[in-house]
Design a protein that fits this description.
3-stranded antiparallel beta sheet; formyl-coa transferase, domain 3; 19 helices
Length: about 400
């Protein structure tokens, strides 16, 4: 497992020099900025004095801090600021004016405007600033004011409808995909807007909706419905219209995923599972024919996998050149030799000396790789550094803290 934390000679990340201000909490905006920070951007995260981002206290805790916090706030500088106060709002505007390139926020639409921190307010102090706004339903439209969380966005955007066994209730993935998908869209949008700004000299406001980010991943759902009136329905672990592509049980109670929908792969798979009759059936030579008999084909594959332990199933499939893989839990992933060889786990040291594994910066850059410099900081850890750059003294900060501004 690599640890680039202590490598002072590593080249600067691809986004070195980009200055980002995060006005958000929970997951969508923090995930977007975590991607930027992992690749060298200077990210200043603003938190409410006293409480901070709720993720500090979500899920499994190490002492009084969530281990999730240490991962999602990697490399960020954390300051406190009460955005509901005029003085706090003034501090944010001063920060933006001092050289912030991108502001990322995920409050409900209208919130920043009430705090005098909307796009028009920010561009008055820095004309070329980029404001990336993340919300459940977007900044406009009849639903704009509704609160939006990941599970709601997944449902509204069409994903949750498909994540179910036929005839059974929809399920969620066990992760907040609506937030992280939106965060990826926001990170992309920030960089695209900066690229354009460097040509035009102008900033802009970017509107990222959680449900639209989910909807953007729905492949052919829209054109199929528009042209044919087809509404794709849940198919469990299988993929409608693609056969065989499913999950299959093994003798040791585990599962494997197999994708052999290319015509040649299908023939090899049927020969491997002992069904040459299905391999040579002219009606099954192409995917269209196989779709009509998907249940029969899947039953033949499952009969073969169910009689063998997972490792034997996978070894045979790999030897035959058929795309397949284990359905891993986190313990499987960490122990896998390929994962170890690729080095996608970083080790950081928590303030009390405890080592902690977090996902290494992804994707990989050949010349300017991302790096983990430190895990998520303490609440207000960088107040002195960041506010000091604005000319505030320790006495100034002490007075602001006493009045609940920072």
């Amino acid at each position: 497992m690599p640890n680039v934390v202590d490598d002072p000679h590593a080249p600067a990340g691809a986004l070195a020099g980009l200055k980002v201000l995060e006005l958000g909490q929970f997951l969508a905006a923090p995930f977007a900025t975590s991607m930027l920070a992992a690749h060298g951007a200077e990210v200043i995260k603003v938190e409410a004095p006293g409480s901070g981002d709720p993720i500090r206290r979500w899920r499994r805790m190490h002492g009084d801090t969530s281990v999730w916090w240490y991962a999602i706030s990697r490399n960020k500088k954390c300051i406190t600021c009460n955005l509901r106060t005029p003085e706090g709002q003034d501090l944010v505007r001063r920060l933006v004016e001092s050289g912030i390139d991108v502001v990322v926020e995920n409050f409900r639409p209208g919130t920043l405007e009430r705090w005098n921190l909307g796009y028009e307010d920010l561009r008055r102090v820095k004309a070329d600033v980029v404001l990336v706004r993340i919300s459940g339903y977007g900044q406009t439209g009849p639903y704009a004011s509704r609160p939006g969380f990941a599970n709601v966005a997944e449902a509204f955007g069409g994903l949750r409808h498909l994540t179910a066994e036929p005839g059974r209730p929809p399920v969620r993935s066990g992760l907040s995909l609506g937030d992280t998908i939106a965060g990826l869209h926001a990170a992309f949008a920030a960089l695209a807007a900066i690229y354009e700004r460097d040509r035009s000299g102008q900033g802009q406001e970017v509107d990222v909706a959680l449900y639209e980010s989910v909807f953007n991943l729905t492949e052919s759902l829209l054109p199929e419905y528009d042209l044919f009136g087809h509404v794709r329905m849940p198919t469990g672990a299988a993929l409608e219209g693609v056969v065989p592509s499913n999950s299959y049980p093994t003798a040791d109670g585990k599962w494997v995923a197999i994708g052999a929908n290319a015509d040649g792969l299908y023939v090899r798979l049927m020969e491997l599972v002992g069904r040459p009759d299905l391999a040579t059936d002219p009606a099954l030579a192409t995917n269209d024919g196989r779709v009509a008999r998907a249940d029969e084909i899947d039953a033949a594959i499952a009969a073969w996998t169910r009689a063998r332990p997972r490792d034997d199933v996978l070894a045979a499939l790999v030897d035959a050149g058929i795309p397949a893989g284990p359905i891993n839990d986190i313990a499987d992933i960490v122990a896998d030799p390929h994962v170890r060889a690729r080095g996608i786990v970083d080790r950081v040291t928590l303030p009390d000396g405890t080592p902690l594994s977090i996902v290494a910066p992804l994707p990989r850059f050949g010349r300017t790789p991302g790096r983990t410099e430190h895990p998520g900081p303490a609440l207000g850890e960088h107040n002195r550094e960041v506010y000091g750059s604005l000319g505030l003294s320790d006495e100034d900060l002490a007075e602001l803290a006493e009045r609940g501004v920072v």
